[in-house]
Design brief:
alpha/beta; Rossmann fold; 3 domains; five-stranded antiparallel β-sheet; 22 strands; 33% helix; ligase; Phenylacetate--CoA ligase family protein
């Protein structure tokens, strides 16, 4: 039997997308029972679809009785497992790992669709293993509309509306460029396919020197500012210092953890609302912050299960070891009880905003901003920018950068492919030194570690960039 995903799963029509949008908004103030009914119906459909259309899930669920929707009876999956079984996981026989790899190898395909249908996004391996994930039309549409139901109220006042109009509704996203990461590829896709957004959406890479980044954002004058929390905080400091003068209607930190104090700093510097978005390449609409400052899980379309080391459920109010994610929208590459690697805590009490959607705290993918003293003063180097330099070296499978002294970095790498470890290391060292030198950071020793990247012994988490000094 040919395995082709179809219907509103992978080829959503304009009417299908309109229905999805209406349902997203109708659910915002639905009660807990109505939200649960949506979740049960979508989960039942997803499980049935995955067992029919995915060879991997058919095998994986062989011991689970047909028809059951008790998620705890279904064995979890990990990123390495999904990647190792890629051809059997996907539900369209025209999609193969060989074809996907060829598509990803061509940078001209950034912002395009595989086979003209599927956006393909890659992860950098923050939790220890790089990944490749396809989106279908329904999942992609929800990435765009689900956050709006939490954010719209923040931009409806006279001042934010004036800023949106004055800045021509331009949107700036700070994310690593030059690859098929969700931020870069997503921005390129929207700009390519939307006439309205074509000149209004722009990507700003944190790999460029901070002064250049500040100048570029200042010139663009965005109405919406989205991106890595660590970089947004540096832009906020530039705004306070007078090096940046922008007036966004909304700031949305994402991709990295940010404290409440950090969000207050953003709000004060830009004098606008701040709404955090908790998303992943595997599911771009997991949770969004409400007006009361709580991150609400969009449980009508995504299921999060906080669990311990044995994948046993953790009660509300307790931090989990990891969390299992189920994306109820995506049919081309089903994500069901997927170990996301983050620690979350579900709030035991309802949010004061009145929403029935549960709220969570997230200890997400962490990394340290490294600050170096140069002749021109203090220079911050952002974790995702630094790690990307190493990960883009051919032959690097995983990397971890540890600052061991004011003038020393220790780099742990895991290699794969045909290149020798020495060849890979030579380029890693050269590229890191060039990256730092471009920012005025010189006389830093880059040392090769004798061990591969390591997880934190206490939390089990993997951090790309960390500092062992104050």
């Amino acid at each position: 039997m040919a395995r082709h995903a179809h219907g509103d799963a992978n080829g959503a029509s304009r009417l299908d997308r309109a229905r999805l949008t209406v349902d997203v908004w109708r659910a915002k103030w639905a009660d807990a029972d109505a939200i649960a009914a949506r979740r049960r119906r979508r989960l039942r459909d997803l499980l049935s679809f995955a067992r029919r259309q995915s060879r991997f899930y058919r095998r994986h669920y062989a011991d689970v009785p047909e028809g059951t929707t008790d998620l705890e009876r279904f064995p979890p999956v990990t990123k390495p497992t999904l990647m190792a079984n890629f051809d059997d996981v996907v539900t369209d026989t025209a999609v193969t790992r060989e074809r996907v790899d060829a598509f990803l190898a061509d940078d001209a395909n950034v912002g395009r669709r595989l086979l003209g249908r599927y956006p393909v996004w890659t992860t950098s391996g923050t939790t220890g293993e790089p990944g490749v994930f396809l989106q279908d039309d329904a999942a992609l549409h929800l990435v765009q509309v689900v956050p709006d139901r939490w954010i719209a109220d923040a931009v409806l006042g006279l001042t934010p509306l004036y800023r949106i109009l004055a800045n021509d509704a331009r949107g700036a996203e700070v994310a690593v460029a030059g690859g098929h990461f969700a931020g870069a590829s997503g921005v390129a896709l929207l700009a390519r396919e939307s006439r309205f957004l074509r000149d209004r959406l722009r990507l700003f890479s944190p790999t460029r020197p901070l002064d250049e980044l500040v100048a570029a954002v200042d010139e663009f004058q965005p109405a919406f500012l989205v991106g890595y929390a660590t970089v947004l905080l540096e832009l906020a400091r530039a705004q306070r210092d007078g090096r940046l003068d922008v007036s966004p209607a909304l700031v949305s930190p994402t991709a990295e953890p940010i404290t409440d104090a950090g969000k207050r700093e953003l709000a004060a510097a830009f004098d606008c609302a701040v709404r955090e978005v908790y998303a992943a390449t595997e599911c771009g609409f997991v949770a969004v912050e409400c007006a009361r400052g709580n991150r609400h899980v969009n449980t009508d379309w995504a299921i999060l299960e906080p669990v311990d080391e044995q994948y046993e459920r953790v009660p509300a109010g307790e931090s989990s070891h990891t969390v299992l994610l189920t994306n109820l929208a995506n049919r081309i590459q089903p994500i069901i009880r997927y170990d996301l690697g983050d620690s979350v805590t579900v709030h035991p009490d309802p949010c004061p905003c009145g929403s029935a959607f549960p709220a969570i705290d997230v200890e997400g993918r962490a990394g340290d901003v490294l600050r170096f003293q140069t002749a021109d003063g203090d220079v911050p180097v952002f974790p995702l920018a630094l790690s990307t330099v190493v990960e883009e070296v051919p032959g690097v499978r995983r990397a971890q950068i540890v600052r061991t002294a004011a003038d020393a970095l220790r780099v742990h790498i895991e290699t794969a492919g045909d290149r020798t470890g020495d060849d890979v290391w030579t380029q890693v060292e050269s590229d890191l030194q060039s990256f730092l030198a471009a920012r005025g950071v010189t006389d830093v020793r880059v040392e090769r570690a004798a061990t591969p990247p390591q997880r934190d012994e206490r939390s089990g988490k993997f951090r790309h960039v960390r500092s062992e000094i104050d």
